[in-house]
Amino acid sequence: MKKIIIIAILLATCFISNSCTKDFLKERPVDEIYANNLLVNYSGFYSMISAQRGLMRNEHGRFSATAISPNSVFNGGSDLYFGNQRISTATWWNWPKLITQFTDGVVFKEIFDQMYTIINVSNMIINRAENDLDVDWEGGSAEKDEKNKTSIIAQAKFFRAWAYRHLTYCFGDVPLSLDEITGSNYRTDWDRDPIEKVREAMIADFQYCVDHLDWRVDGNNTKPNQAISRAYLAETYLAIDQVQKAVDVLEPLCEGNEFSLMTARFGSNANEPGNCFIDVFRSPLYSDGNNEVLYSFLNAEEESIPYGTTGISEVRNMFKNYYSYLTEVSTLSHPDYEGKTIDLFWSLNGGKGASRLAVPIGAWRLYEWDNQQDNDIRYDEYSVMKKLYFLNTKNEVYEILDKDGNSPIALVPTAAMFATSEGTIKNYFLPSTRKWDNLHSNFERASTDYCFQNVSYMRLSEPYLLYAEALHKLGDNEGAAKWLNKIRSRAQVSYVASSDITMDFILDERARELLCEGQRRHTLMRVSQANGGDERDVDNFFKRRIRDINEVCGQIEGGTSMLGTTTVSHGAELYDTPVLFPIPKVFIDSNTKIKIKQNEGYPTY
Fold this sequence. Notes:
It contains 20 helices and six strands. The protein is mostly helical. Helix 9 runs antiparallel to helix 15. Among the domains are: 223 residues, Serine Threonine Protein Phosphatase 5, Tetratricopeptide repeat, CATH 1.25.40.890; 139 residues, no CATH class. A hairpin with a 5-residue loop joins strand 4 and strand 5.
């Protein structure tokens, strides 16, 4: 098994290498050798699917050329996140108009490459599974053989549609490839297919998954399954304004009894101080008793990995603040931990964060709706970093306080947030999520960047929020309020009335519930493009909410900052500021037979 999985990863790696070169989407002959040796039985196909799961999990990994993750790019520079440290490849997180300088940006190229790697591998799996009559499906009977074959095809189609989901929200129109690429059909005449055509293919793939996958595959939530496929299918229907179809797809998931929000303490964290909301993230697997998470990423500590397929997650590093830089922390010491002060600090505070992305003050204030900030368990000290701790000389835990006797964590703006030129902000006073707290088992590595826990990727809250959105769009605000109030009830906050339901309120509730989860840019892109909307419009949900909520990204020319200083334009009020990412120049240059059109707002070549 180890050899098979390594071959699968090598195959995927070869795809990545190819897609980064001039020969876009081309397979090298060695790939064909690997495929012919591997895709001959169910075990080989299953190993390829396992490799695909690893590639999907890389959304929470790190780009090869920069210290950020794909997931951070799907969130940064929206209404909910700004760049707290200077990342040269993502200066547009804070200054949206600077994105035009990145037509050959490494993060956009790697996203493009990674998604087409997944698509290429999926196409190979589907083609070989459907057409090779000599595959040993290892079922022991015709019926079980067919079941194994169908499960492989469905999971491959899930990954293909999942990759196109990212591509369409990031780049808009993209090449649609549904066939295995071989030496006989290699092309340099790709064109960008209309997003409508790509979404038709996504709908067909997700529908196949709904029709052929169980609610949980292999009894757990770590593989493509019917639940997450329904959520994505409904989201895609909303993206093309087929709202009733979205309702129909979501109804069995939301109204059924296969999944439910966790409302009581459970799992590995149940005996520790906390709440039922944060337990969901500490124990995300169905086998842990979690009935809420639709899909999880499996991780493992490096010392426990039997082969090189188990990734490590950067999610904590992206979203948790770099509190060890605070004066109150950097001056700490302990006689029993000489040279290990910072390791001790992070071990007592949920693991190290590097604060690549910070949540703006305006977003934190969304929890104040109806004066519920003191009731909301999604905003209490177990879910959000509000206090920091250390050990005294008696090895007793105490709270770290500033010179005035208060926690150094506060909703405090700094001058750097409103500087008139692009730079590093480093506001380490701000709160940050505790969803991704995780300690390395080895104290010597308590301050490591990576976290190794199993990670919740999608929870039942997502389809509930999509269901509420669809019902609202159909004019059923009472129905929308019902599903929002299921989420708010678990959060222990006041109910929303049907008269309060607007698309902005739904986006606010998404922020409160899904902060530092999901892909916020995708959501804002989708709702801004609804009914033929232009994502570059200055008054759509995307740009308006940045200006309304994100005090860093949303600054306008001649505005007034939280500190009373005059702001300059960061571009969120300008139509010329693109929202879609640029089509990578390396792809445009490699596609020699057709001139690929660049997205509006970027330089052309």
